[in-house]
């Protein structure tokens, strides 16, 4: 295991201890991904005058982000995977302050889906964008009392994510999730759910019931489309439900993407501001919020339009559905 050269806790990027607030804080998870990114983050943070905070345990990123928001920090970087980003966003929410720091995502984890959907592909690019990148106000998703920036996933893939161990993620990266999903699919019976999709006009709301293999609720991410980035500035959640009866033809990841692209039978899609998902067998359903696990019998989801300022990359489309976007 790689031993970080920077001690955990709160330090300046030049290595000296520091307790005072600063305009720039980078919160780094040293054991996310392949665990070899801390030295690079440390060097780039030092060059940019950042205060570096290195996490030791689950919840540290949330606490450091809360403290940064309360102290009026202008820019906070989350260096890690999707789970680290989720903790940082939760910390902003927990702070209770009205004006949150701007968020910069530094892709340094096994899953960097959120960063990719925002057009950020490398650690070096992220720090460069801190100087020159665009800042956009993006929607934020809320699931019960938890926030999510990218997506909320229920069912098969959430179960597989929960069962994927750290060693597999370190050795195989994203492939570890794919392999575990395929393995889990052979024995997954689906989840009986009632899904209420609420439009702004309550009279047009939709109630759907059935056995679901996968439930995807995307904010920055959409599922099974050639354009993976969702419209994160429209005040809507992208909901995709995959009926359990469709699973035999979707064991392979390639088949799954192909089926989604065709809008085949067994795929339900809606774009709405609010969703309620209820378990019909009185047992909690496992969800993954940006990689963080949540279990609930009933999940109330909504979008918070323009809630968070985020640094985005050059390839980020403010409206990915516009004619010519993504070309």
Automatic annotation (TrEMBL):
This is YegS/Rv2252/BmrU family lipid kinase. Residues 19-147 form the DAGKc domain. Its cofactor is Mg(2+). PANTHER family: LIPID KINASE YEGS (PTHR12358:SF106), SPHINGOSINE KINASE (PTHR12358). SUPFAM superfamilies: NAD kinase/diacylglycerol kinase-like (SSF111331). GO terms for molecular function: ATP binding; ATP-dependent diacylglycerol kinase activity; metal ion binding. It comes from Natronosalvus rutilus. InterPro entries: ATP-NAD_kinase_N, Diacylglycerol/lipid_kinase, Diacylglycerol_kinase_cat_dom, Lipid_Phosphate_FormReg, NAD/diacylglycerol_kinase_sf, YegS/DAGK_C.
